[in-house]
Amino acid sequence: MWEKLARKLLKNRLIILPILVVGTIFMGIQMQKIGLSYVYAKLVPQPDPVYQNNLRFIKLFGEDANVLTLGVESDKIFERNFFNDWYRLGNDIKAINGVNVKITEKDSIYSDTVLTNQEPFIQLREKKFNIYPPIDSFVDIPIQDVLSIAHLYNMYRNDSTQNMEFHPIINGPVTTDEAMDSIEQLIRSLKFYDGLILNQESMVSAMALTMNPVVLNSKSRVIVVDQIEAFIKAFEAKHNVEIHKSGLPFIRTVVSNKVKNELIWFVALAMSTTAILLFIMFRSLYMVVFPLIVVAFGVIWSLGLVGLFGYKITILTGLIPPLIIVIGIPNCIYLLNRYHSEFTKHGNKMKALTRVIEKVGVATLFTNLTTAIGFGVFFFTGGSTYLLKELGLWHYVTNMLSGTSILKEFGLIAGLSIMTTFVVSLLIIPIIFSFLPEPTKKQTKYLDNRVMENFLEFIAKRILGARKIIFAATLVIISVAFFGMLKMKSETFVVDDIPHESSEYKDLKFFEKHFAGIMPLEIVIDSRKEGKFKGSTAYNPMKRMDKAAKAIANHESFSNVLSIAEGFKFVTQAYYRGNPKSYRVPQSSEAKRIGKYLEGDEESSKGAELLANFVDTTGRYARMSVRVADIGSERLPQLVDSLQVQLSKIFGSRFDIQLTGTSITFLAGTKSLTGSLMQSLILAFILIAIIMVILFKSGRMLFICLIPNTVPLIVTAGIMGYWGIPLKPSTVLVFSVAYGIAVDTSIHFLAKFQQEIKRHKWDTQKTILVALKETGRSMIYNSLILFCGFITFTGSDFGGTVALGILTSITLIVAMLTNTMLLPSLLLTIEGSIKKSGTKQEAKRLAKLRKV
Asked: Are 733 and 670 in contact (CB under 8 A)?
């Protein structure tokens, strides 16, 4: 079959090449459709209760991760000039011009379906919060609200109107030092804001900027954040202070910008690195230029596929173009190496090119297929343990095949791109070289590289004469690695991808130190009753919320609580003319009296609007908002479980309590994703095993192949344990990727072994030496290129990408050693079985010939 394919391909080369060029131009046009993703990745399966609870919370109260926080530490906070400039900074930010926004339904949290049937919880405030349908419009107010010590509101009791009036503390710059002293005294007395906007002990002031949710999930977020940063730099220069910036909108913007920059940087770096390595190895421009043309076509096709499927560039899909360069080059090396080897034997160019497709094509097809599987299995992530246990196998499988996980997109595009690059290399290399002059002695001189020959001879001697030492060394390495595996732990953080030396990470720690954290954690209280002062705003639940807030305050990783109870404590203080001692939940005897002052026109009352953010329109549901430190997926579940127990005791069986918010969904997402990635690794093992059986038609060969490619994974896991690299989504991803690539060298070696074993009359030793001589050079060259290609990822600003680069590089180098030394040694251990099997096959063949 491959011989016929080779002849047809070369015969129709003048037709195939233009078609390929036109197809590449078409994919180049599709590239124009792609853009950066600005949406927070959804990692929890939609039917999961954690996801559904968060979806309901957003529908009831709105987005909880849309606050960008600024912080400044200075003893000049209450100096008039500093205070006035802080006031102007907030006003300038709030006055940022409107922006054009284009957002699709795919970016909308409302595009998801609520699959669980708990209708009482969904008393939706759709009219107020349904702002996510497809939009292509102009947003007047990108920053919806600004809250800082210079933008605080206070409540005032107005006996004449029997109403609580809610007014800003200042309406313009403070003009006198005396006025500034009065304002400072007032702010320090308002306990509602203490620990929320001002840390009085360390004199750190925060400014909370609430971003329009429509802008939050669009490219316009970058424009808005850039304008905010311009205002911040001017303030810093004037007052010689540092303003710290954090919050998920800011972190996500930083990540998006880094993804964009790294896409260009890594493509250029991968191209230059592989070009230098190819020239050093082969000393020929032909061996540099044409492989780079092949991978350039592959990059265009990979980005074209992203556009064709309507996907966007994420932290993972941004890695595909440089990966295609690194993975695509070995195809060209195998093809060109075989072409030059064949040509030096007989000097016939067209015959050599035909033999390249015929002999190397099938092996290269299967090596690319295994590599594509190593990436492609990520398409099947998403089936969580919850789905399997609670909803059954059908929901588990359908959720794996659907959804918008960035891993699914990465797996699909990477798998298709790898196979596309294989086809491109199989077409371009033979066709282009069929038009070029015959290879010169200078171009094939690398085949007689004495250094490489000596290295391969050294390996051959070790295989033939020191197999026991190879096996013993392998067992020692596996044993040592196994103890390292026992030290592995599973832990991840929300900001894992941001380097610890970066200003973004340091700013996050600044807010954790002074305000306990910025990651949202929401507590939803279902009172099971509706009505004003009957449901969540009744005296009983308010007292329980106050008690819960005090319990939460005992945890150093939690910030102060914001809730309807804190709001009523603020009202009570205002009712008693601002007396700080009156900052408490009103007694039942006081509640009706104070409540009358809240019965004004709620549509125009700022105070009522503030309180409405913490209770739904029916009065049944209330929220308690907390900010938590990024303490990791190991400590946070323990803290959350402990809090859940405390809250259950405080509220009792009369109330339903649910913990949700970005922090909770993050925990569930990482747990689900890590589990899915482990399942993907198992799937990769199974699929690659099936391919090996189809290719070699031998279970024995499968076993022989699996051992040298499993050892590198064990070594990598051991290194992770000894070096304290935790098991998390970005590191689990390494195993299936590296395994899919590492198997390639085994396939090339075993394919050559199978082709030669019969010709050498089932002499295993002689066949191994021939196979090693023919494929060993390519195996080593390819492993070095892959190592150098993946190691370039260590220049990334993302921890996950760095881990992918380091761990995959280590795995591939170990795989090169096991496949060049351990694999042939294992073949020699079954030498007798191979000869016996070959003898039987030969006897059957002769018997058939006699019958004929």
From this structure: no
84: exposed, middle or buried (C-beta count within 10 Å: 0-12, 13-18, 19+)? middle
pLDDT tens track for 369-416? 888 888 888 787 655 444 444 445 444 445 554 544 677 888 889 899
Continuous H helices in 190-247: 213-216, 220-239
> Under a CB-based contact definition with an 8 Å cutoff, are residues 6 and 354 in contact?
yes
Q: What is the pLDDT of residues 606-647, one digit of tens each?
A: 555 666 678 888 888 899 998 888 887 788 888 888 888 999
User: How many Å separate Cα 680 from the centre of its chain?
Assistant: 16
Residues contacting 9, CB < 8 A, separation 6+ = 16, 357, 426, 427, 430, 431
Per DSSP, helices labelled H in 697-830 are 699-723, 729-757, 764-791, 799-817, 823-829
Please give the residue that has the higher pLDDT: either 634 or 98. Answer: 634
- Write out the two tokens for 178: 């005396």
Please check whether residue 710 is in contact with residue 824, taking contact to mean a CB–CB distance below 8 angstroms.
Answer: no
Average confidence (pLDDT) over 50-76: 83
Among 417, 486, 378, 487, which residue's Cα sits nearest to residue 730?
A: 378
Please, what's the b/e burial string for 717-756 (b: 16 or more CB within 10 A of its CB; e: otherwise)?
Answer: bbbbbeeebbbbbbbbbbbbbbbbbbbbbbbbbbbbbbbb
Beta strands 204-211 and 243-246, pairing class: unpaired
pTM of the predicted structure, to 2 decimals: 0.77
Report H helices in 48-149.
49-61, 80-94, 126-129
How would residue 755 be classed by pLDDT, with cut points 50, 70 and 90? confident
Buried-exposed string 779-802: b where 16+ CB fall within 10 A, e elsewhere: bbbbbbbbbbbbbbbeebbbbbbb
How far apart, in whole angstroms, are the C-alpha atoms of residue 341 and residue 351? Answer: 12
Report how far residue 226's alpha carbon sits from residue 250's, in angstroms, rounded to the nearest whole number.
Answer: 10
Phi-psi region of 210 (alpha: psi -120 to 50; beta: other; left: phi over 0): beta
**According to the model, what pLDDT value does residue 40 have?**
59
- The amino acid sitting at 315 is I
Sign of CA dihedral 491, 496, 500, 506: negative
Q: How far is CA 230 from CA 225, 227, 254, 257, in A?
A: 9, 5, 15, 16
pLDDT above 90 (res 85)? yes
Name the one residue in this structure whose structure tokens are 């059986």. Answer: 693
What are phi and psi for residue 558, nearest 5 degrees? -105, 145
Contacts for 237-242 with beta carbons within 8 Å, 24 or more apart?
A: 238/85, 239/74, 239/76, 239/82, 239/85, 241/72, 241/73, 241/74, 241/76, 242/72, 242/73
Ordered by start, the domain boundaries in the chain are 8-37+253-439+667-851, 49-246+505-660
CA distance 160 to 425: 85
- Whole-number CA gyration radius for the chain: 33
Domain 8-37+253-439+667-851 in CATH 3.30.450.20? The answer is no
Beta strands in 169-309 (DSSP E): 198-199, 204-211, 243-246
Neighbours of 36 (CB within 10 A): 16
* C-alpha to C-alpha distance for 329 and 260, rounded to whole angstroms: 24
Rounded to whole angstroms, how far apart are CA atoms 438 and 351? 12
Backbone angles phi, psi at 100, to 5 degrees: -75, 135
CB–CB of 94/227 below 8 Å? Answer: no
Residue 123 Cα distances to 97, 119, 486, angstroms:
35, 8, 49
Question: CB–CB of 405/42 below 8 Å?
Answer: yes
Distances in whole angstroms, Cα of residue 715 to Cα of each of 132, 153, 597, 751, 826 = 47, 60, 70, 26, 19
Q: Coil, strand or helix: which one is 731?
A: helix
CA end-to-end span of the chain, whole Å? 25
